[in-house]
Amino acid sequence: MKKAGIRIGRKTLAALLSCAMVFATVPLTAVSVMADDSTVTIYHTNDIHGKLNSTYAKDGTLSQIGMDVLATAKKNTPNSLLVDSGDVSQGQLITAQSKGSFAFTLMNAAGYDLMCLGNHEFDYGLDTLLSNVKSAKFPMLAANADRNGSPLLKNVQSGIGSYDNNGASIIKTVAGKRIGFFGITTAETAFKTNPNNLGGVTFENEVKASQKQADALKASGADLVVGIMHVGIDASSNPTSTQIAKDTTGIDIILDGHSHSVDNEQVKNKDGSKTVYIDQTGTAAAKVGVLKVSFSSGVPAITSENVAPADFGKQFPADTSVTAVYDAQDQTLDTLRKTVVGKSENALYGGTYEGKSVCRADKTNLGSLIADAMVEKSASLVKGRSEYASLPIVSLENGGGVRTTLPAGNITVADVNTVLPFGNTLSVKEVTPAVLYKALEVGVSGVYKDGQLSAVGGFPQVGGMRFEFDVFKPAFDAKAKTEGSRVTKIVLLNKDGTDDKVLNRTDNTTKLLFASNDYLIAGGDNFTMLSGLKAVAESDGLDTIVQNYITEQTANGKGSFRYDSKDRCQILYSGMPASAYTGSFTVKQNDKAKASAKVLVSVDGGKKTMLKTTADGVLTIEKLKAGGHAVEVFDEKGTKIMDEFTNNLLGLNAAANDKPFVCDTTSGVSTKVGKTYFALVTIQKGAKVSYTSGSGSVLATLAKAPQTNSNGTVSYLFGYKALKKGEAGLYVTVNGTAYKMYRSVAA
Description:
- The protein has 747 residues and is α+β, with helices and mostly antiparallel strands.
- The protein has four domains: 10-296, 4-Layer Sandwich (Purple Acid Phosphatase, chain A, domain 2), CATH 3.60.21.10; 339-557, 5'-nucleotidase,  domain 2 (Alpha-Beta Complex); 579-650, Immunoglobulins (Immunoglobulin-like, Sandwich), CATH 2.60.40.10; 661-746, Immunoglobulins (Immunoglobulin-like, Sandwich), CATH 2.60.40.10.
- 19% of the residues lie in helices and 35% in strands.
- The protein is built from 16 helices and 51 strands.
- Strand 39 and strand 40 form a beta hairpin.
């Protein structure tokens, strides 16, 4: 979308904000903004989603704009207003546990002047919403929300303020000018919160309602008309705030929300008589909108910018009285954070484990758990909606969003919040197989580079499906605008995890339900194909959903549960599966290596096998399928000693290699006569390389064209075809020296 709005540059804004210095009523010195008597400043926020506190980088720079900083800005700016465009009361533990009410407590302390309802204000049910509205010491607006033929919020705040409490609009006199405000809540609320939360509330078309309110405010003598809207500019929304501006007259400014967009744009209104300014600040207190209206020339002159925390924090320190309100509430959650929500019998792997980003290059059991929780919650959201009753549900959580590993044992609220710290919410959209293939292409695009696997934040942890991808095929490239063709197969899964059916990558008609977090749904991590899709449902914070799922799994397991790795993605090399490998790590008990000890070993929850450690306590496990595995080690009596994780693709607890090449096959291979097998071998560029079989009559060698990598290596696919029963070694010669790679048995 073309951004044609007038913007104030950072230097210019800093100069305006620095015109005069005064001592604020906070311990640190705040800058008082000098403005002429005809200028009105509107600070605006949207989609805060519970991010109410200020946070700071290591160097002390403001990184999240909290209510305490906004309070200072409001107090030190003459003729200023502080406005929010919805979705403030949901998304974090501190708001969830108070059912949103604490958000309004802190907004009162910060000095907010106005707010419109967002769809997530309904997440706690209608009674709670109305209670929260009553607690706000500023007008709450939702002109298009009706109940029983009357505006939803009419007279809800009676007795709180001297304003006309019609629940739809208000005129505020600032700098001697009458500024009219009205609120619009997206009609998508009907399906972007649990329908049971609505209590019979309906939503009038946003365009029609906006025109009615603009006309009424102009008729009441408003000098300026501002729509506070939770509508957004997502292509899947109809209408968008842009469409509202284009299809109405009389509106001067739209302070927008809902799509989590950073937006400053200007569009002509319906009759071309007015330019409408549309502003939105993104989400999670990452920016604040600063909009100035000067009436010095008689005609409103508008400038606007979204200001980053670092710049805003230089002008306005935190109001410590507001900080104290937040801190006091936060401390009450300490006990809750320690509350146990479940118990796992095995470790759940995510985040950075022993220096490797395990969820960013392969599936893990924790990634699968989160994805499965999404599928289950989505099913409950569409239950009873006939148009979706028979549609398969798939899910995707980006590996970069899974932030840590959970050891076996009790799992607390704080543990889940550490795994999922971003306050993301669940969104469900309607997709086709063609779109799903495109999404997975983005997810695997950065996985394999320069002859080795690499970690990428968008790697798909999936539910309801499995997929295969070939790292030797072209990858999605955002800059080159190529879609990629690495994903060779997507298979829908039955509830028991067995295969259902293979999806066709060219199928643009079959409907599926796709569940993910709001970050990806909005196009994050280059998943832009998701942003314009038909929305089906929205729900709680993802951490809450996962907490509930863990509690359910624990109950089903009668006090504990285990979650084993689901085989939902397979890496291919030119059509061949990545080969088996030998896992290797030191077994320790009480921080001491268990030397020459017999131990029982279970891989991914499988049958326990007796193995023996070396004199140094090293355990080797042969013939592990390529990729990640959760390994549990027990003593001979069956008492668990430790959990460990291996992944040869990441070089994590796989057998060491001191040869002048890297081969992805480190264990013996068994192949049926007539079948082929390939190993991936990476060697420094310029080396003289040859490849042989120890018995050409048993194993006939095969080779594919090498691939030169940008890091100075060359990748070879060396393979064989099993001609008859027998066994032989496979050898690579590098610069005249022969090395055995592995041994194969033809059966």
